[in-house]
Amino acid sequence: MRFDLFTLFPGMFAGPLDESIIKRAQAANLIQIAIHDIRDWTTDRHRTADDTPYGGGAGMVMMAPPIVAAVESTLGNDLGGTPIILLSAAGEPLSQKIARELAGRRRLAMICGHYEGVDERVVTVLGARELSIGDYVLTGGELAAMVVLDAVARLVPGVIDAASVAEESHETGLVEYPHYTRPAAFRDETVPEVLLSGHHAQIAQWRREQALRRTARRRPDLLTGLDLSERERAIIAEVSQVPDPT
Ligand SMILES: C[S@@+](CC[C@H](N)C(=O)[O-])C[C@H]1O[C@@H](n2cnc3c(N)ncnc32)[C@H](O)[C@@H]1O
């Protein structure tokens, strides 16, 4: 899968994309990442990419022409079939479902806003989808684009072991159960006995129950619409009556 990132600050991507799983995925050619400097598509000698807002107000707005030219010329024949994301605090919230949907595509373009944001005609002319990574405001879309890239890239087949994705938070509709590794005893805390038992069915049942309990305590909003057994419903009802110890 190929990612094209459009930014005024290409240097921000050095480092995070050159480490760990994303680095290995690029080396194995499972993903390709191209960073494009929007200023390369400006037309004046000062390489101007932003201007004051019509209607007045604080801050600068990124101009539409260089961004649209950058995306159109980079995507070329792929323009019609490539999702174009504009990172925006006012966008649709990123979710695991959206990440999975995007991971099924061959190519993905992402535009990073800065300053007050981006001229609205970037959205209308390019048919961009606005995505937010949470209800807070960042200084720019670069970190948000890296979050989207990371969430999508790890779902590209071969990037990580499919089994480790299957039970993760938000894949099952629940947040994940707690993990433990050696040592078995640490300070006054011991690993739950069942995890040392080697009994796979009991471990699976314990993990499912822990995931349900955690979700009921921390993210009850996720439980709506889930297909749960009577026993699982009873666990949730019990958790809901007990104050959260964590
Ligand atoms: C300072 S912000 C602009 C905020 C904008 N004036 C608003 O109130 O929504 C600059 C850029 O950072 C990015 N950004 C900020 N918060 C974001 C978020 N929660 N998710 C995704 N992108 C974000 C966007 O690309 C945005 O254009």
What does this structure look like?
- By secondary structure, the protein is α/β, with parallel strands linked by helices.
- The protein folds into two domains: 2-160, SPOUT methyltransferase, trefoil knot domain (Alpha/beta knot, 3-Layer(aba) Sandwich), CATH 3.40.1280; 167-241, Orthogonal Bundle (Trp Operon Repressor, Chain A).
- 35% of the residues lie in helices and 16% in strands.
- The protein is built from nine helices and nine strands.
- It has helices spanning 20-27, 64-75, 96-103, 121-126, 141-153, 162-166, 193-196, 200-218, 230-241, and strands spanning 2-7, 32-37, 50-51, 61-62, 84-93, 107-111, 129-132, 185-186, 189-190.
- Helix 3 (96-103) links the parallel strand 5 and strand 6 (107-111).
- Helix 3 (96-103) packs across helix 5 (141-153) and helix 8 crosses helix 9.
- The radius of gyration is 22 Å and the shape is elongated.
- The two termini are 40 Å apart.
- Bound molecules: S-adenosylmethionine (SAM).
Output the CATH homologous superfamily of the largest domain: SPOUT methyltransferase, trefoil knot domain
Q: What is the end-to-end distance?
A: 40 Å
List ligands, each type once. S-adenosylmethionine
What value does the Rg take, in angstroms? 22 Å
Using DSSP, what is the number of strands? Answer: 9
What integer is the average pLDDT?
Answer: 96
CATH structural class of the largest domain: Alpha Beta
Layout of helices and strands:
Elements lengths: L1 E6 L12 H8 L4 E6 L12 E2 L9 E2 L1 H12 L8 E10 L2 H8 L3 E5 L9 H6 L2 E4 L8 H13 L8 H5 L18 E2 L2 E2 L2 H4 L3 H19 L11 H12 L5
Parallel strand pairs: 1-2, 1-6, 5-6, 5-7
Antiparallel strand pairs: 3-4, 8-9
